[in-house]
Amino acid sequence: MTRFIVRRMAQTVIVLVLISIFTFLIFQVIPNGDPAARLAGRTASPDQIRAIARSWGFDQPIYVQYLRTMQKIFSGSVVSYSQQINVVDQIRRGLPATVSLAVGAGVIWLLFGIVVGLLSALRPGRVLDRVLGFLALTAISTPAFVLGAVLLYVFAYRTSILPTGEYVPLTDDPWQWFRHLVLPWISLSLAFIGFYSRVLRGNVLDAKHEEYVRMARAKGLSGRRVMVRHVLRNSLIPIVSLWGLDFAGVIGGGAILIESIFDLRGVGQYAAESISTLDVPPIMVIVMYTGVLVVVVAALVDILYAYLDPRISLNT
Amino acid sequence: MSVATVASMPPTPLLEVEHLKLYFPVKSGVVLDRVAGWVRAVDDVSFEIHEQETLGLVGESGCGKTTLARCLVQLLDPTEGAIRFRGEAVGARGRAGRRALRRELQIVFQDPQASLNPRKRIGQIVSAGLRLRGLKGRAAADELRRLLGDVGLGVEYVNRFPHEFSGGQRQRVGVARALAVRPSLIVLDEPVSALDVSVQSQVINLLSDLQDEFRLGYIFVAHDLSVVRHVSDRIAVMYLGKIVELSPGDELYRRPIHPYTAALLDAIPVPDLARRGTRAAPVRGEPPNPLDPPAGCRFHPRCPRATDVCRAVEPQLTAYPSGHLAACHHPLNVNGGELAAATRSQLSPLTSGSEAPTLVA
Amino acid sequence: MSTQPPLLEVDELSVTFGTDDGTVRAVDGVSLAVEQGEILCVVGESGSGKSVMTSSLIGLTRAANARFSGRAVFDGVELIGASERQLERIRGAEIAVIPQDPMTALDPVQRIGDQIAEQIRAHNRVSKREAFETTVALMERVGIPQARTRARAFVHQFSGGMRQRIMIAMALSCDPRLIIADEPTTALDVTIQAQILHELAALCRQTGAALILVTHDFGVVAELADRVAVMYGGRIIEQASVTELFGDPQHPYTWGLLGSVPRVDRPRSARLPTIGGAPPSLVRPPTGCHFKPRCPHRFEPCDDVPPLVSRLPGQPNHRDRCWLDVEEKRRLRLVDGDIRLVGAAT
Fold first, then answer.
1. Bridge-based pairing state of the strands B185-189 and B105-108
2. Which of B41, B79, B44, B71 is nearest to B59 (CA)?
3. Closest-CA residue of chain A to B28
């Protein structure tokens, strides 16, 4: 176990370094990426641009800029190019929305994915299975932002059942918090539900044909007992690791489009804005924050998987 | 099936194996992979096989016979030791040399379903070897038809896929594939274990017919002594990575010398009512862990005849007068005269002691 | 012979199911009886229907669309067509199963102790603790060392022989009247096979359970069987006590099987006797006797299906499906004192 943890920590560090370098370099090579020019405004003279470049350190060699940026990130004093605000503070302000979105959606898509998957697997090939399969395919194929936009239009603009956007903190007003998150949750979850239901359906159908399931029936266990204790347990284990990684992605600010459409002002939306203004420091920080989250969650998922499936050893 | 005697064997063996070892590392450690131990799959094995001879290689699971078989056809690299083909070391050859060697040494696998590519027709599977021989077009098609006929498959099967055949037929395809390159030696890795009894005997008969026609040598790996009996000129019995007995022809069955061989023979259920209930208690216990084999003679924890020397000293491979070798301190079925005339064989493992065997009642 | 009624009586059992190639008649009118405490060996090769037949007895055929006709009465209860609830009560408690491959027959993510205990608790109202104690006792009885600790282990942590012992412990857990073992030692090493078979037979004798042992190995039959049924092409083609079968085998297929076993107790022969050809297609089986195409002794009457009857005056329970005259059979089957199927292609 210690070996596993040390390994994963080493992995995390390497991943962080690599993605920070990579992200930094990307923004160096993008056309119109000169931050000094953008900071100076459209009518600035070359001299003004150069002065800004010097004050921000943009005239230094790349690796020096990189190291200085990293230094600022780790001392928590990173300031974004465009808004002169501390990046870390900004991220912290966006976290509650992102976390609410992620946790809510994660729970919804896990539960419904399992339920739909099971319903499909109970009578494979029959009407319910086909209908659910078709719906799943539709859900997977529909881009989440299209869905979000449509839902917004129907439920918030044409009618006023639900609010048109923004985030209300849980601590301020739980009911409004909930109302504001319903549509984002649905938009984000639907594709995952479709996908997870198909995966679970496949696992259950495979498990039903395994010899140990047949043997369990030969022992005289009732069909339901066999289903729950043997089929489901084996089928759900791969879902665990899937969910962990998807969840990590969302909570890391991966739901950029959903957050933007619903104006939740979470980490993802912050990332979207920073990208459109080519504002490097926030992007770097968000990318690294997501990186840490994904690696940590992946490690936790592996541990959980090894606990659930004794054939898997952490040393492989 | 040629029944070669010791006297008539030609000088240069087809294949020589000398103190061959295959150890697989077991890794452990926190950040860097450190080797914590070795699985000694094959642990100092030596033997030779001559042209057109059949060597049976028998043992139970974990004895190393499959690992050894794969190493002989260059599917695995030895950890230590030498393999020589027609006098020339296998390891010393360059890439071209090793490719040429693959045409001489072929293998037929145990599972006829898993060893044939399910997406290829059997004509394609067998023809691959013909192309290596440089045959094309008409000549290749004729040779293909002949080969399939030799293994008892009609030419109408050429375009079928493996899943359309029975287990016995698939195994015939595997044999045809091996024959296509005209090898000198075919390693048969449990070729009939997955087949029904009546099909087993069909395939065994086929193999002995082919041996005469194509002048083949065989190394016939099996877990069952009854199966190798009818094809083998000599039989080697393996236990936990070592050869414990190597016997000419049928002698192994008439007088097994090593207690493990005797136990193996005794364990075979015989379809004879008169023998019902007469079998001695089967050998007790389970084969030990190849990561941590017992000291001395590896069989001693399960051997009813084990003494102190067995627990401490690894027995040498003793050569008895009839050309029958056995690695045991207290051999069975050997009389005083034979014991006196016995010598230490060159094939003995390097770590074995030099205590001469003694007779025990 | 016991005066009690047979524990299991199968009467004209047939099992068919549809495949892409057509309807397969896997079991074709099988009738047999198993007495209390008896060991019956069912012998056959692939495609003989032996596994489908035994699976049908507990309603667990692998084919989803299997159709059944005929009867199988176990201790007064009709098994064919019984409700799932009735079958669940019988499975594991009255009729237990030992499968061929213990590795795949055990749930890989559950401890084996739990898997044995779950069978006990499915049929008995006992607490978890009691079930666990029974489990440990069972494991000790079948020779698993350090049973208490090993009960918490998983299937991949055991060797092949130990896994099969676990299956035996499971089978015995609810004191069944009948055990069905489908080639229980095929996947094991020869020395372990011998151990397991010995122990299984001894346990059956001790508990009084009857055993249906499906095998392809006549050596196993000679060692353990009280009675034997030989299956070919979905039918029983010979049925006898073990002494009758080895002493006076009646069917050419039996001769072929007996002859093609490579022997270690007889002098070596140049060529192994075998049965030429291949097992029949179960979709389009031959008309009349299923063995006809491969039988060197076939003659005109073989176009009609021979009924399974006794043609031997002194052996009323020795039945076979062969039209040949009894004296003719005795002449044809012997070659140099050995029973063989002569004249078969090799």
1. parallel
2. B41
3. A315
Q: Do B31 and A315 touch (CB under 8 A)?
A: no
Contact list, C340 vs chain B (CB under 8 Å):
none
* Domain residue ranges of chain C, discontinuous segments joined by +: 102-175, 251-339
Query: pLDDT exceeding 70 applies to what percent of chain B?
Result: 94
User: With the CA atoms of C153, C156, C160 and C163 taken in that order, what torsion angle do they form, in degrees rounded to the nearest 10?
Assistant: 40
Q: Which amino acid is at B128?
A: A
Name all chains with 3 or more CB-CB pairs below 8 Å to chain B.
Answer: A, C
Residue ranges per structural domain of chain A:
2-74, 95-308
Q: For strand C319-320 and strand C235-241, is the pairing parallel, antiparallel, or unpaired? A: antiparallel
Residues 6+ apart with CB under 8 A from B94: none
Tell me the chain B residues in contact with residue C261 when contact means C-beta distances shorter than 8 Å.
197, 226, 271
C257 interfaces chain B, CB cutoff of 8 Å: yes
Sheet holding B15-28, edge to edge: B34-49, B15-28, B80-85, B88-89
User: Cβ of C288 under 8 Å from any chain B Cβ?
Assistant: no
Nearest CA in chain A to C157: A311
- Give the 3-state secondary structure of residue A118: helix
Give, for all 346 residues of chain C, the pLDDT tens digit: 456 889 999 999 999 998 888 899 999 999 999 999 999 999 998 889 999 999 999 999 888 889 999 999 999 999 998 999 999 999 999 999 999 889 999 999 999 999 999 999 999 999 999 999 999 999 999 989 899 999 999 998 888 889 999 999 999 999 999 999 999 988 788 888 888 888 899 999 999 999 999 998 898 999 999 999 999 999 999 999 999 999 999 999 999 998 888 888 877 777 788 888 888 888 888 899 999 999 999 999 999 999 999 999 889 999 999 999 999 898 888 877 778 887 755 4
CATH of A95-308 among 2.30.30.210, 3.40.50.300, 1.10.3720.10, 3.30.200.20:
1.10.3720.10
Nearest to A285 by CA among A271, A265, A264: A271
Choose among B27, B29, B31: nearest Cβ to A10: B31
pLDDT band at A91 (very low <50, low <70, confident <90, very high): confident
Q: Which residue does chain A place closest to B30, by CA atoms? A: A3
Whole-model pTM?
0.84
Reported as type and span, the H/E element at residue C31 is strand C22-34
User: Would you call C123 and A311 a contact, using CB atoms and an 8 Å cutoff?
Assistant: no
- The DSSP symbol for B347 reads T
Of A217, A229, A237, the CB nearest to C60: A217
Name every residue whose Cβ is closer than 8 Å to that of residue B330 and which is 6 or more positions away in sequence. Answer: B259, B305, B307, B310, B357, B358, B359, B360
**Paired tokens of B347:** 């094939």
Q: Hey, where are the domains in chain B? A: 50-74+94-240, 289-361
If interface means Cβ-Cβ distance under 8 Å, which residues of chain C face chain A?
Answer: 58, 60, 62, 84, 88-93, 96-97, 99, 101, 104-110, 118-119, 122-123, 154, 156, 170, 174
Q: Compute φ and ψ for C276, nearest 5 degrees.
A: -70, 165
Helix A62-74 × helix A280-308 angle, to 10°: 60
ipTM over 0.90? The verdict is no
With a CB cutoff of 8 Å and minimum separation 6, the contacts of C5 are none
User: C268 touching B, CB under 8 A?
Assistant: yes
CA A154/CA B117 separation, integer angstroms: 55
Fold of B50-74+94-240: Rossmann fold (3.40.50)
Q: Which of C258, C269, C271 sits opposite B271 (nearest CB)?
A: C258
> Which residue is listed with tokens 């160096």?
A28
A230 touching C, CB under 8 A? yes
